[in-house]
Amino acid sequence: GPSATCQQGSLHGLFGALIQPRVCGAPFPICWSQVMLFPSCHFLYFICSMFDFAFELARLSLKQKLPEIHFKYGSFLEDEGKFEEAEVEFVKAGKPKEAVLMYAHAQNWAAAQRVAEAHDPDSVLIVLVGQADAAFKQKEFSKAEALLLRAQRLDLAVKHYKEAGMWADALRVCKEYLPGDLEALQEAYEREAAKKGPRGIEGILEQAREWEQAGEYSRAVDCYLKVRDPGNNTRMEKCWMKAAELSIKFLGQPRSIEVMRTVGPQLVSIGKFNVAAELYLNLDMIKEAIDAFMEGEEWNKAKRVAKELDPRYEEYVDQHYKEYLKDQGKVDSLVGVDVMAALDMYVEREQWEKCLETAAKQNYKVLHKYVALYATHLIQEGSWDKAVALYVQHGTPANSQNFNIYKRLFVEMVNVAGMNNAEAYSSWADLRDLLFNLCENLVKSSDANTPAHEEFETMLLVSHYYATRAAAQSIKQLVSKRGQAQAIARGCPWDCVVKSLMAGMGV
Questions:
Q1: Of 256, 289, 257, which is closest to residue 274 (Cα–Cα)?
Q2: How far, in Å, CA of 497 to CA of 24, rounded?
Q3: Over 50: is that where the pLDDT of 388 sits?
Q4: How far separated are the first and last CA of the chain, in Å rounded?
Q5: Residues 323, 333 contacting (CB under 8 angstroms)
Q6: Which of 36, 171, 273, 377 is the most buried (most CB within 10 A)?
Q7: Tell me: the pLDDT tens digits for 497-507?
């Protein structure tokens, strides 16, 4: 009835005041301000008496409150440093984890583990992790790692090693127990190493050596390839060479080729052409080896590799060699590879004597191709007399493509001033000899008896007359006086003939 309800409520109020003895103003007929003035031993005795009374009261009418009383009493005992007694109360309260945490906080790991194993197996992990954390702080790394291995929390070992800057151990643990996280950890390590400059590079090299010693050749190769020290070519070469050697020796051809496609160009970039080429040859990368030799201007080696190992590349090497010689202006060397290209370069450089000397060693047709080019050049410069002498020296082929050159030489000579004298004889004689040789060759060619042939015969006759006149002017016995010499020149029967012929030719 109502009286029972009121009694129950009163008990609850009294119980609350008992198990919270430090709460001032609780509905309990005790002056707490006075109690707090007791000596500590009396106060402790008083509080224990209160808990005893609370236990007794709960056992009589509020048994559901017993776990709460045990927990409160355990917390009180923990605060008082009575850990073993507090443990008992926490266990009775159904909260053994509180006892585990109490011992862990006090660094009493054996007790914490004992309670966890006996009453709360799920808390064993907490104990191991906490103990490992404390071991790391005390630099007992092996012990800490063993504890985390038992807890199956090696990720925390990796984390602790990283925070301690012990990257080698972090990578070792990760590789052995967390291989799926290894690549990300390796990248993090490399980023960290890059921030440290030279010290970081030493760390990467140390890691590479450790991978190598552990037989992890692929990872060792990756480490060697990631070294970046632009100011130290010697170190870079050693790293690249080590990566290449390990891949060739241990990783099989596909991986080795992949590595060489990275290492080869790097070696070439620092001038190690032969080294790169030899490594390429170890993997039968013939074209790459040839390219490395050519990059280093080792043309004989490139040619030998092409000839002996893959003749398909002989033309490839020759073509690049020609381009190289052209770019370098090494025309004399180019003659032995591509004589026509060399001759063209001589023409571009206007090295005409060298050009004709080289062309003369080839054949008549090649020679006169460049004689014609030189003659055209001389005519354009107004040196028609040198062009005439050129054909007198090398002959006058009956090539129809040269006819315009021959005609131009004749026209230039008959129209130039100052040729009516004895001194002009050699020039007229050269022109006559040129045309005579041409007509002799025309007789033997398909252009014999053609209008062109007849025209050149006329030019020959005219040049002959002019040469004869110049020769006559040089003989004093034929001229007694200056006026008589001029009369002879004007009255010479062939002078009229010459004028008539030239008029007929439109000259």
A1: 289
A2: 155
A3: yes
A4: 156
A5: no
A6: 171
A7: 455 555 555 55
